[in-house]
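Sample pair:
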Amino acid sequence: MTTTDPVAADSAAADEAAVHRLRARLRHAIATTLPTRVEAVPQGDDGLAPVAHRRTIAREVLDEAIAAHAEAELLAGRRLLDSATEHDVAEHLLDELFGLGGLQPLLADKDVETIAVNRFDRVVVQYSGGRRAQVAPVAASNEELTDLVRTLAARASSEERRFDRGSPALNLQLPGGERLFAVLGLTAGGVTACTIRRHGYLTASLGQLRRRGTIDVGLERFLRALVRARKNILITGGTGAGKTTLLRALAAEMDPLERLVTIEDAFELGLDLDPALHADVIALQAREANIEGEGAVSQAELVRWGLRMSPDRVIVGEIRGPEVIPMCNAMSQGNDGSMATLHASSSKIAFTRLASYAAQGAERLPLEATALLVASSVHFVVHLDRATDRSTRVVASIREVVDADGDTVVSNEVYRRGPDRRAVPVPGALRADTLDDLVASGFDPQLLASQDGWWSP
């Protein structure tokens, strides 16, 4: 039988109360003193002092407040907190103001790939190697977590991004490129929950993917030839399969001066961030309706608008609905070499997903017309999966779209899943005229001769 030490319990309660008093004092100092100090600092072009400078000023304010608080605690006859605790409380407040609050330590860990905040005190992370672990709470209460998400939404964009009962879902990109999706009041306990996914490779090349084991040397050269031959490519796979990373790697094979228009639900691709790699990029993001229910701009509308911007290629970060029809129209009307990603469990099921999304569009195309549209626009479907080790992301299948037969899209699987789930070539499956196009773009047809692929042991 275990008993609770009353002395230890009283000490812990006293420490908790002391931390609460310190936090309250520091919050008051930030609210009352920091604005005045910042006003005295030269402002930048955006009317604000640089973030780094504001954080330095805030640190000075907190140091002064900690000293004043210690003096008040001594006069009251209370035991002082140790300096490490004082530092932790101050840093947490700074992270709330200028960083990502309780999420900051997790996002600072480059091995963390996914953060699942099921509620403020139930947090599970997945590391890049596939290991999962439960970690400390990211907020002190549900209200604090909700406020943190709202703060992140306000920082993410100049556009209005609500997060309340009337708009209970939020999708945005964090400053480091991570993607956050949050819901409010929709869970079993009615609490706020969010998921953050980090793309480990904001820049990628086919060579890097080969070295990581995602593709072999034959696939590297095959995919490079597809891009250079301006084939329209649909990248499929499940959540976290590496679709966006592969899309970035394919885009890296394009001419730096090609004009690209990217369409996204939330900025994630980042092709516009490296002018040396892509000098001519327009990155467009869909927009939700404002509080009056006006101002919404869908991805489908953005694709139509993007075509008026004289693009060489159109790239849709992820097809989620009726934008499939204008995207296919873009692919079939001279914008060869365009790309998109799609959630699908296999390369073959991708055509069913496209048909279901097309049915949601204002055009209400029948299945036969949808199949004909897809067959005339999409040239290849590249599917990603996990290898048998369940951690390595690999290209598992590639299909060449051949034609349409009634309501069915006819395709040939030119690379199929091997014993270890990695794609291996199917000799003779690629159409002769397509092979000629790829050879003209520098592809060696002998790379299709090995039925075991060119994977390194």
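Confidence is low (pLDDT under 50) at residues 44-49.
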